[in-house]
Amino acid sequence: MFGIIATWRMALEGITEADQMLRDGANCQDALETAVRAVEDFEYYKSVGYGGLPNEEMQVELDAAWMDGDTLSIGAVAAIKDYANPVSIARKLSLEPVNNMLVGEGAEKYAHKNGFERKNMLTERAKIHYHNRMKEVKELELKPYSGHDTVGMVDLDMDGSMAAATSTSGLFMKRAGRVGDSPISGSGFYVDSEVGGATATGLGEDLFKGCLSYEIVRLMKEGLTPQEACEKAVGDFDEVLKKRRGKAGDLSLIAMNNKGEWGCATNIEGFSFVVATENLKPTVFLVKFDENGKQYFEEASDEWMENYMKTRTAPLVRK
């Protein structure tokens, strides 16, 4: 038995490659790193890796994390600049006895010392997004923040081992040095091979108020299915935030247990995720809500899939 689940449609190509690796008997860590790197390397996904949208100073700062479900080892980098594939740096850090989370210049020095690829992560396309947004903010008084689609993944291999990872460029036009939930253990991710794992995407400042990834794993340990655990954790915390603060930011989480069962819950319209298991080819699901506010899943249509890529790869013009 094996499986892999990820946030957002952008994970499909990586999931497809990882699915084949898992079918061929690869370990969960190699399959997972391959899947996340595929997202990081594709410049048209503007919230992760190369082509990620910049901060307010037009610099691309990346966050990523890695967790081994067998040993509970964790590695993470935050606000790292000019290095490709931060998920690979995070994986390497998870093998260190201490100093497992590095930020900014310290993370960059570590990456250089260990031979990781140095790369200018700011693309011409991202510069156009930046300049257009600056003009919109000035003319329409829009808030600059938008785009915080973290890729988060959990997988299970045939030996019963599990791993989890996240990677993101964070909020568009965030303050320099801002870090969200993605590299924070228990908030952006958590996995235990004896139970299961979960990862998050959304507004980091609200996600890390609830440690939702850990909460989902805890609920699965108590016997809830991944779907039940996701719905309870997200639903309960959405209510808490609205009661305490008057509103709740975007909260979207996915989970998989050590049986290959999976789940997803969100408080927003338009969330998508990707799943592949022994009995399910890599599939993109859309989260929908009925008239009573109950969520359900619908497989993405060919038209939706075509429009998704067409929109993201369409030529940009500076306004």
Automatic annotation (TrEMBL):
InterPro entries documented for this protein: Ntn_hydrolases_N, Peptidase_T2
Keywords in alphabetical order: Autocatalytic cleavage, Hydrolase, Protease
Keyword Membrane tagged: no
Active site: 150 (nucleophile)
Residues in the signal sequence: none
Listed Pfam families: Asparaginase_2
GO terms of molecular function: hydrolase activity, acting on carbon-nitrogen (but not peptide) bonds, in linear amides; peptidase activity
Record's GO cellular component terms: cytoplasm
Gene3D superfamilies found in the cross-reference section: (Glycosyl)asparaginase (3.60.20.30)
Amino-acid positions noted as binding substrate in the UniProt annotation, renumbered to this chain: 178-181, 201-204
Site (Cleavage): 149-150
An annotated GO BP: proteolysis
Protein name: N(4)-(Beta-N-acetylglucosaminyl)-L-asparaginase
Lineage: Bacteria, Bacillati, Bacillota, Erysipelotrichia, Erysipelotrichales
